[in-house]
């Protein structure tokens, strides 16, 4: 069953461009380093908030990714642009 990671976070206005510029390299690093990474979509919300919707092949793949944290440059650059975490949830894709 596909696990879905829903992470909502806020970015300072002056960091939005950096976040978006860092996104492609973060996705490349995820694809290269995160077994079980399926896909990711980033949704821009009002007030400099974003929702990152990431699909993982299994809950275990997601857990291992969380443990690795920002271990590669592209991931670290993307994470560094985030001001603070609003919410983080995990669910199972049902369709």
Per CATH, the class reads Alpha Beta
Beta fraction: 25-35%
Order of helices and strands: EHEEHHE
The CATH topology is: Alpha-Beta Plaits
Largest sheet: 4 strands, antiparallel
- What is the number of domains? 1
Please work out how many helical segments DSSP would assign.
3
Largest sheet, order of strands side by side? Answer: 2-3-1-4
* Helix percentage: 25-40%
Distance between the termini: 10 Å
Please provide the count of β strands. 4
Radius of gyration: 13 Å
The CATH architecture name reads 2-Layer Sandwich
Q: Determine the oligomeric state from the structure.
A: single chain
Low-confidence stretches: none
Judging from the principal axes of the Cα atoms, what is the shape?
globular
Q: Which structural class matches the secondary elements?
A: alpha+beta
Provide tags for this entry.
single chain; 95 residues; alpha+beta; Alpha-Beta Plaits; four-stranded antiparallel sheet; globular; Dimeric_a/b-barrel
